[in-house]
C-alpha cells in the first residue's frame, strides 16, 4: 500500500501548532497567578479519526480546553467587603450585558452604598442589588447579610454545569444559552477572606518544559521526513550510487 | 504568532505594579495615618478559536470550544482602611481617630481629609497640620493658653494657668460611604471624588464615627511581614511569567531552525 510520507509532515506540523496552543494556555494561567477567583485551564487532546486519503485513515488530535473549577486557596485579608466562597458556586453579578458569575470576591461599596465588584458591577442577592447604608456589614456563613445587626439581604450563590460556563474576562463567567443555574447545595461564605487563583506554578512550569520538548521532538520528525525526501531526490534512480 | 509572548508580558507588567504598590507601602511603614494599598487583577478578554456548541461535520456538537486567554490586567489599586495601631506620644496636639472618620483640613482653598492627627500651632495660634493646612472648623488658641485638651467626643478646650476655660470648639469628623474611592494626593491627604460619595459630617463617637484619643498617634496600618511575604510571591510570579516569554522565544527558535 502506498503511504505518502507527507502525512508524517502534516501530523508533525499539527502537533507543533497544538504545542503552541498549550503554551498560550500555560502563559495565561501564569499571568493570572495573582488574580482573585481565577480558574486555570488545561489542554487535553482527544483522538480523532480522519480520512487522510483514499487508502488510509489517520488518527489526529483534537484539542480541548477545560476550565478547572477547583477551589483556590483562601487568604485572610481582614477587609470586611472581601468575601470568599468555600465550596461550590458563584456570586451573581449584574452587568450591562446581563447577569454574569464570578468567584472573585474583592467587592467594594460604591458612592451609593451598593456592593459592587472591582469593576463597579453590582453584586446580586435574593432581594436584588445589595445596598449597605449602615456602618458595619456582617455576612454569615450561609450568605445572609446583616447591616448593624439587621438582616437586609442574602447573597445568591449559584452553580451551573461547568461545561456551560464560559470565561469572559474581568473575572466573569457567562452562562451559555439554554443552560440553567441552580442554587448551590454546598458552600460557605467567608467574610474578610479572598479566594486566590487556583494556578499552581510548579504544575505550569513542568507543563512548559514538557511542551517545549514535545515541540523540539516534532521538529526532529520534520527534519527526518525532510531527510527522506532529500535522499529520494538525490539517490533514488541514481546510476552511479 | 505565539500569543504567549504578549500574555507573558501582561503578567510581568502586572507584577511590576504589584511590586510598586508593595514598595510604597513599605516606604510608608512609619508614616502617621498612612493606609496601605493593594493591587487587584482580572483576566483579560478571551479569544475564541472555536466556539462552544459548533456543529461538527457529522452533525455532533463540540462540547467545549477553544478559548485562549490573553493575560492579565490590573483593575485597581485599592486603599485598605483598616485601623492602624495607636502609640502614645504625650503631645497635646497628637490626636488619633479610633474607628472610622477623617479630619477635614483646608489647603489652597480646597477641602482635604486626613487621618494623620499630628497637629501643631502656627505663628497665629491656629491648629494646623505639619504642612501648615488649617484644621476645620478653624480654631485659634487664645493668648495665655497653657494647656489644650480634647475629649473623646471632640470637644476642644483651651485653659490658662488658673485652669480657667478660655475657649472651646467642637471638632467634627467626616465619613465616606466608600473611603476606597478617595483620591490620595500625597502629604497624608485624601480628596473627595465621585466614587467616594460626599462627606458626612458628625461629632466623634456618633453616627458610627470613631472617637478621638488625645496624646496618641495612629501609625501606618502596613504590616511588614505581610508585605515581605507578598514581595516574595511577586518576585516569583514575575519570574514564572518571564519563563513563559522565554519558552515562547525558544519555540520560535526551534521553528526558525527547521529550514537548513
Describe this protein's structure:
- The complex is a heterodimer of chains A (241) and B (260).
- The model of chain A has no long low-confidence stretch (mean pLDDT 87).
- Helix content of chain A is 25%, strand content 34%.
- Chain A folds into 2 domains: 5-70 and 199-235; 74-195, no CATH class.
- Chain A has 241 residues and is of the alpha+beta class.
- Chain A is built from 2 helices and 19 strands.
- The longest helix of chain A is centred in the C-terminal third of the chain and has 34 residues, at 201-234.
- Chain B is of the alpha+beta class and 260 residues long.
- In chain B, 22% of the residues lie in helices and 32% in strands.
- Chain B is built from 2 helices and 20 strands.
- A 5-stranded antiparallel beta sheet of chain B has the order 11-7-8-17-16, with no helix packed on it. A 3-stranded antiparallel beta sheet of chain B has the order 12-13-14, with no helix packed on it.
- In chain B, helix 1 (4-27) packs antiparallel against helix 2.
- The longest helix of chain B has 33 residues, at 224-256.
- The two termini of chain B are 21 Å apart.
- The model of chain B has no long low-confidence stretch (mean pLDDT 88).
- At the A-B interface, helix 1, strand 2, strand 7, strand 15 and helix 2 of A face helix 1, strand 1, strand 3, strand 4 and helix 2 of B.
Amino acid at each position: 500500500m502506498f503511504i505518502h510520507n507527507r502525512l508524517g509532515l502534516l501530523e508533525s506540523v499539527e502537533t507543533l501548532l497544538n504545542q503552541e496552543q498549550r503554551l498560550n494556555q500555560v502563559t495565561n494561567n501564569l499571568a493570572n497567578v495573582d488574580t482573585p477567583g481565577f480558574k486555570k485551564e488545561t489542554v487535553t487532546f482527544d483522538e480523532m479519526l480522519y480520512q487522510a486519503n483514499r487508502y488510509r485513515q489517520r488518527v489526529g488530535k483534537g484539542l480541548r480546553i477545560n476550565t478547572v473549577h477547583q477551589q483556590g486557596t483562601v487568604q485572610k485579608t481582614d477587609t470586611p467587603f472581601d468575601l470568599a466562597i468555600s465550596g461550590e458556586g458563584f456570586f451573581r453579578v449584574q452587568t450591562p450585558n446581563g447577569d454574569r458569575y464570578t468567584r472573585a470576591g474583592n467587592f467594594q461599596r460604591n458612592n451609593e452604598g451598593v456592593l459592587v465588584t472591582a469593576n463597579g458591577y453590582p453584586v446580586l442577592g435574593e432581594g436584588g442589588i445589595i445596598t449597605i447604608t449602615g456602618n458595619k456589614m456582617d455576612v454569615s456563613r450561609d450568605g445572609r447579610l446583616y447591616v448593624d445587626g439587621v438582616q437586609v439581604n442574602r447573597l445568591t450563590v449559584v452553580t451551573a454545569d461547568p461545561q456551560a460556563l464560559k470565561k469572559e474576562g474581568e473575572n466573569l463567567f457567562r452562562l451559555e444559552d439554554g443552560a440553567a443555574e441552580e442554587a448551590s447545595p454546598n458552600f460557605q461564605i467567608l467574610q474578610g477572606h479572598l479566594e486566590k487563583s487556583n494556578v499552581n506554578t510548579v504544575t505550569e512550569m513542568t507543563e512548559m518544559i514538557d511542551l517545549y520538548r514535545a515541540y523540539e521532538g516534532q521538529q526532529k520528525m520534520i527534519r527526518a521526513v525532510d531527510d527522506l525526501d532529500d535522499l529520494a531526490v538525490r539517490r533514488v534512480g541514481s546510476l552511479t550510487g | 504568532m505565539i500569543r504567549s509572548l504578549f500574555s507573558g508580558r501582561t503578567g510581568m507588567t502586572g507584577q511590576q505594579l504589584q511590586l510598586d504598590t508593595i514598595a510604597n507601602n513599605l516606604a510608608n511603614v512609619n508614616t502617621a495615618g498612612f493606609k496601605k494599598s493593594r493591587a487587584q487583577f482580572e483576566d483579560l478578554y478571551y479569544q475564541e478559536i472555536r466556539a462552544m456548541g459548533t456543529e461538527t461535520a457529522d452533525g455532533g456538537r463540540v462540547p467545549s470550544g477553544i478559548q485562549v486567554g490573553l493575560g492579565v490586567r490590573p483593575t485597581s489599586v485599592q486603599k485598605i482602611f483598616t485601623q492602624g495601631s495607636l502609640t502614645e506620644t504625650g503631645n497635646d496636639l497628637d490626636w488619633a481617630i479610633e474607628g472610622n472618620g477623617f479630619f477635614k483640613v483646608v489647603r489652597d482653598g480646597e477641602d482635604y481629609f486626613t487621618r494623620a492627627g499630628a497637629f501643631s500651632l502656627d505663628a497665629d495660634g491656629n491648629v494646623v497640620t505639619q504642612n501648615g493646612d488649617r484644621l476645620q472648623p478653624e480654631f485659634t488658641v487664645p493668648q495665655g493658653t497653657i494647656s489644650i485638651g480634647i475629649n473623646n467626643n471632640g470637644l476642644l478646650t483651651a485653659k490658662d494657668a488658673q485652669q480657667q476655660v478660655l475657649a472651646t470648639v467642637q471638632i467634627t469628623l467626616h465619613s465616606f460611604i466608600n473611603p476606597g474611592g478617595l483620591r490620595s494626593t500625597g502629604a497624608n491627604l485624601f480628596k473627595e471624588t465621585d466614587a467616594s460619595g460626599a462627606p458626612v459630617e458628625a461629632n466623634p463617637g456618633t453616627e458610627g464615627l470613631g472617637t478621638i484619643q488625645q496624646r496618641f498617634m495612629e501609625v501606618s496600618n502596613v504590616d511588614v511581614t505581610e508585605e515581605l511575604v507578598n514581595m516574595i510571591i511577586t518576585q516569583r510570579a514575575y519570574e514564572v511569567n518571564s519563563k513563559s516569554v522565554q519558552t515562547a522565544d525558544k519555540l520560535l527558535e526551534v521553528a526558525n531552525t527547521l529550514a537548513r
